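User: Hi! I have a protein structure encoded as tokens and I'd like to know what sequence might fold into it. I'm fairly new to this, so please keep things simple.
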């Protein structure tokens, strides 16, 4: 199910998304050329949408959009994004295949090719961290989204080798208080997983020490229904890879016939 609300001078998110949460089959929304500037709570209304067109609005940050984990296509071209840090959260969307950003002020402040490389680097830091050392450029390319209808080029993939997330976006850690400024009481907290208690020993008439292990912070809990979620995620990832492979095959075919 799709919904077209383009060119309606819409600017209040409460008005735009009122009642949409009751449409679970809604998969595509076109909100291009309105006056939207803030979408902080959008994930509460359209969490199942896979395509969202926001071309030609007044959006300067992707806050809220980065929690639409079902998105496969997101168009933010011709908006007011002027800082790479304002779109960093988008890289957390696991199945985003197509991402449009052209026509934003950010691409006017630097070399367009360099800007594209930095955007790809956001996704590389999240998606490519587990690639094996012998992975090829093509392996990396398959994990990156199609940016403004173009796959990452070989030159852009080579440039990614010289970039890190810290060089691209200001580290959050640098904005936090120094460790010495934090509450000193935290130094007395034992993060180990043992608790000891002295108890009377009825056998000897003395005191015995009982040590009990407690769960560590790294304990993982499996969510109900996670098996079906993992299966759905696997199918989406497979569909994404097939889509990228088909683009490669099309380019190879054109090259063979001399186009």
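Assistant: Happy to help. Inverse folding works backwards from shape to sequence: for each of the 259 positions I chose a residue that suits the local structure. Here it is:
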């Amino acid at each position: 199910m799709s919904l077209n609300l383009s060119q309606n001078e819409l600017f209040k998110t409460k008005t735009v998304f009122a009642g949409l949460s009751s449409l679970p089959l809604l998969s595509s929304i076109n909100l291009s050329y309105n006056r939207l500037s803030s979408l902080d709570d959008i994930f509460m209304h359209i969490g199942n949408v896979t395509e969202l067109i926001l071309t030609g609005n007044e959006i300067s940050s992707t806050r809220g959009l980065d929690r639409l984990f079902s998105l496969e296509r997101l168009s933010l071209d011709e908006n007011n994004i002027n800082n790479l840090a304002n779109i960093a959260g988008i890289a957390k969307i696991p199945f985003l295949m197509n991402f449009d950003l052209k026509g934003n002020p950010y691409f006017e402040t630097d070399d367009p090719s360099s800007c594209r490389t930095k955007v790809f680097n956001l996704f590389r830091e999240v998606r490519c961290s587990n690639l094996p050392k012998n992975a090829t450029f093509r392996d990396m390319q398959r994990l990156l989204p199609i940016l403004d209808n173009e796959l990452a080029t070989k030159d852009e993939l080579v440039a990614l080798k010289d970039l890190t997330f810290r060089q691209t976006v200001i580290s959050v850690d640098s904005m936090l208080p120094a460790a010495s400024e934090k509450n000193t009481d935290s130094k007395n907290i034992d993060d180990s997983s043992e608790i000891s208690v002295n108890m009377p020993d009825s056998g000897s008439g003395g005191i015995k020490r009982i040590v009990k292990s407690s769960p560590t912070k790294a304990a993982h809990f499996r969510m109900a229904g996670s098996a079906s979620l993992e299966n759905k995620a696997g199918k989406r990832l497979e569909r994404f890879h097939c889509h990228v492979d088909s683009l490669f095959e099309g380019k190879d075919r054109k090259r063979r016939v001399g186009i």
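A useful reference point when you look it over: Residues 165-176, 178-197, 211-226 have pLDDT under 50 and may be disordered. Feel free to ask if any position seems puzzling.
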